[in-house]
Design a protein that fits this description.
With 782 residues, this protein is α+β, with helices and mostly antiparallel strands. The strands form nine sheets. Strands 20, 21, 22, 25, 26, 27, 28 and 29 form an eight-stranded mixed beta sheet that branches. Strands 1, 2, 3, 4, 5, 14 and 15 form a seven-stranded mixed beta sheet that branches. Strands 31-32-33-36-35-34 form a six-stranded antiparallel β-barrel. Strand 23 (512-513) and strand 24 form a beta hairpin. The longest helix has 34 residues, at 393-426. The protein starts with 8 loop residues before the first helix and ends in a 7-residue tail after the last strand. 36% of the residues are buried.
């Protein structure tokens, strides 16, 4: 039994490594970012809202919008420059920290409908706004292409100097030349005549919740986001962004993940600009605006004009992106995206998934992968809700689950394939059920050898080699296969284990359970019942073959109970059950001494029988001679057919006649009165016929096939020893009067002894005038 499946451990480790590397490489592509932004981030916001952990909108933000109500009251979609100045002046009376106008672009209503804005008039407006001593912030935008008929905003302004935001110790260090990188673009904003009244920053926001902290469109200038200008001066230190002492966290793309509040909060905290305009007309001061407040004005928020953008909390008007950024600045509440955190989570997840798939039992590994796949989202969502940490938990979860499942499935497929091979192999030694069970847990087969008392059984096909001389190799193989199959089937039926097939025989044992690792009781009865079943099947098959004139195959069975060592001498890829002990050899001697179609047992087996008695019908006490034993050994031979012995005699007569039907060499046949007297170690015998290859002896003793005997001619009535030859008993036939006819084949060594014996027989024929008929080749022997 030697299956040799490939060891899959190296392949599985290589597979897990390749799959993990693929997931890591894909993590570095936009695919991961798209998955996080489109799927993970909305789920994180919903989970945080469910736990009521969303950041509230700061009360210091006073938000007014030019909404449908304002549009309906004014009748036109914008304010004139004069109206803007009046509005800002009115709001500045409350001394807010800053006034933030989302969009105040180049063509105000006055420029488009009424007379063009004149320089002297614009300068007066600028002076009025400047005298308010309130920071006025307005948004501009960056265009990748130059727009016709639009004036660019000049970057030659103190607010845009790159050196101003860089630390002094970084001058000349190369940082100002490398980060932030220079990007091609054109800066547009409020009317050039009015620009000195405002601090103008860009309002470019990426959709789905990211803001760009600044733009750098030439070597010496930097344009910050408008929200920063409302809070103070920004600075860059070691490629990090600071607002005062507050560090603004950036992700690896140098974008700011905007920390949105609940969508409803923005709408709830936004007031209509109409109420403010009404108070201006009534000359009533603006209530509830303090010195720490930031006034936010959102123009063009009426239906049909507002520019909605996708965000993690749903579609929002673009102006609220700046409001959310202002809210984070006021509360120092940020989302943190870290490439190092994401990569570490991915590597740890892949390592855990691979370890589970490679080293844990499949069922536990499946549960572990399921737990890992679910725990990663839970950890990611929880960290987002409570700490604002954004992890690529979805990518880590999908990658770990994918790698783990693929490796686990391949491992299970490989183990199942190996189990099938092992089960197929073990079915020759074990019952199909036990083979399947052990195949699922092959470690049981490779434990230490155990010492057990078992009942050993040898089954041998009598004269198989001689029978198959008349068959083709294919026919011989098929006949042997048929015989072994039913023998093994019977052994498995009675709970036995097949040690090995011995050419034309089988070695098996009863009384030990590999799966349970323990001895079983009643194994002597099991072995004998099994042997009886085997012999009954053998006789039934012999009768069927006899009826068709085909060769038959009698069996001899020996059973012995003894202490042996049981173990697997094979390796992981090769199964080789072996019994070691003197009891195995003695079992072979019992089988060799057994009569065909009977069962020979040692005393150790007969003593353990619970269902059979030494006085059982068919049980015969015998003494057999064993090599290296001076005295005969007592044993029991059981005849399963004691009540129908005529059936056995009929098939055995057919067996004998079949084997001497044709002779391949001339044979001298004696008349009964001329039989030649010979001597053997079992006593005197008579030589009936002989050839160059063997003799037929008539003896009072029953010699078992396979027995070796020395045959000596008695030429001088004991005065002088005649020539001797070594022969092998091939068959026997019991005759009337207690005589037994034996067919013996000369052994080939030494050839001189065989020739001397044949010459002595011929000399004896001539000397005493005995008659012998020489049978020609291929003639029936009588």
């Amino acid at each position: 039994m030697s299956p040799a499946p490939n060891n899959p451990k190296i392949f599985l480790k290589l597979l897990s490594g390749i799959l993990s590397l693929i997931c890591i490489l894909l993590f570095l592509t936009p695919m991961q970012e798209f998955l996080s932004v489109q799927v993970s981030r909305p789920l994180e916001y919903k989970f945080r809202a469910f736990l009521h952990k969303s950041p509230s909108l700061d009360a210091r933000l006073k938000i007014f919008s030019f909404d449908d109500m304002t549009l309906g009251a004014l009748g036109y979609p914008d304010l004139t420059v004069n109206s803007w100045v009046r509005l800002i002046t009115h709001l500045a009376q409350s001394k807010p920290k800053a006034i933030y106008i989302d969009k105040l672009f180049a063509l105000p209503l006055q420029e488009r409908i009424y007379d063009p804005l004149k320089l002297d008039q614009a300068q007066e407006y600028v002076k009025q706004l400047t005298d308010l001593q309130i920071p006025l912030i307005s948004g501009g935008f960056i265009s990748r292409v130059q727009l016709p008929n639009r004036q660019l905003l000049s970057l030659f302004h103190q607010a845009y100097l790159l050196k101003k935001v860089m630390n002094a110790d970084q001058k000349g260090s190369g940082v100002e030349r490398s980060w932030p990188p220079v990007e091609a673009g054109y800066f547009y904003g409020p009317h050039p005549y009015l620009r000195d009244a405002f601090r103008i920053g860009h309002m470019t926001n990426a959709e789905l919740g990211y803001a760009k902290p600044f733009f750098r469109i030439d070597e010496s200038s930097i344009i910050p986001h408008a929200a920063f200008l409302a809070m103070g001066e920004i600075r860059i230190n070691d490629e990090s962004l600071y607002l005062g002492e507050q560090k603004i966290p950036l992700n690896r793309r140098n974008l700011i993940p905007i920390n949105f509040s609940k969508k409803q909060e923005y709408f709830a905290q936004t007031k209509s600009l109409k109420a403010v305009l009404d108070r201006i007309e009534a000359k009533v001061p603006e209530p509830k605006i303090g010195s720490d407040d930031i006034v936010v004005i959102l123009p063009a928020m009426y239906t049909g004009n507002a520019d909605f953008k996708d965000s993690p909390v749903g579609r929002l008007q673009g102006g609220y992106f700046g409001v959310a950024l202002l809210n984070s600045l006021l509360q120092n509440s940020w989302l943190v995206e870290s490439f190092a955190y994401d990569l570490s989570l991915l590597l740890v997840s892949l390592a855990l998934a691979a370890a589970l798939a490679l080293f844990v039992r499949p069922l536990l590994a499946s549960l572990g992968l399921m737990f890992l796949g679910l725990s990663l989202p839970f950890v990611g969502l929880t960290l987002f809700a409570y700490q604002g940490i954004c992890l690529s938990w979805l990518w880590a979860s999908l990658s770990a689950t994918f790698v783990g499942l693929v490796v686990l499935i391949e491992r299970m497929r490989s183990e199942n394939h190996r189990s099938q091979i092992l089960a197929t192999t073990l079915r020759g030694a074990l019952s199909p059920e036990l083979a399947e069970s052990l195949a699922q847990n092959p470690k049981l087969l490779h434990g230490d050898p155990v010492e057990q008392i078992v009942s050993i059984m040898f089954v041998d096909i009598v004269g198989f080699s001689m029978t198959t001389e008349r068959l083709t190799a294919k026919e011989s193989f098929q006949q042997l296969k048929n015989q072994i199959e039913y023998i093994v089937e019977k052994i498995h039926k009675f709970g036995g284990l097949v040690d090995k097939s011995l050419g034309d025989g089988v070695l098996a044992f009863f009384g030990y359970h590999f799966e349970k690792g323990q001895a079983l009781v009643g194994h002597a009865d099991q072995a004998l019942h099994c042997a009886i079943e085997i012999q009954r099947e053998a006789l039934l098959r012999a009768e069927t073959l006899k009826a068709t004139g085909r060769p038959i195959f009698p069996l001899r069975i020996g059973i012995n109970t003894a202490t042996v060592y049981i173990g697997n001498l094979g390796t992981e890829g090769r199964i080789d059950f072996t019994l070691i002990g003197n009891g195995v050899n003695f079992t072979a001697r019992l089988e060799n001494a057994c009569t065909p179609f009977q069962i020979m047992m040692g005393l150790s087996t007969s003593d353990l029988l619970a269902q059979f008695s030494p006085r059982e019908a068919g049980m015969l006490q015998r003494e057999i001679r064993i090599k290296h034993h001076k005295k005969p050994i007592l044993c029991f031979e059981y005849n399963p057919f004691h009540a129908e012995q005529h059936k056995v005699q009929a098939v055995m007569q057919y067996y004998i006649e079949f084997h001497k039907l044709y002779t391949n060499e001339p044979r001298w046949y004696f008349e009964p009165e001329d039989y030649v007297k010979v001597m053997t170690r079992f006593g005197e015998a008579q030589l009936v016929n002989f050839s160059e290859g063997g003799v037929a002896l008539l003896s009072a003793s029953l010699l078992a096939p396979g027995e070796r005997i020395d045959i000596t001619l008695d030429q001088t009535a004991g005065k002088r020893k005649g020539p001797s030859v070594l022969a092998l008993v091939c068959w026997n036939k019991e005759l009337e009067g207690g005589k037994v006819l034996h067919g013996c084949q000369f052994l080939q060594y030494p050839a001189e002894a065989r020739e001397a014996f044949v010459q002595g027989l011929r000399h004896d024929l001539q000397q005493h005038g005995k008659r012998a008929q020489i049978l020609p080749r291929n003639k029936v022997a009588s």
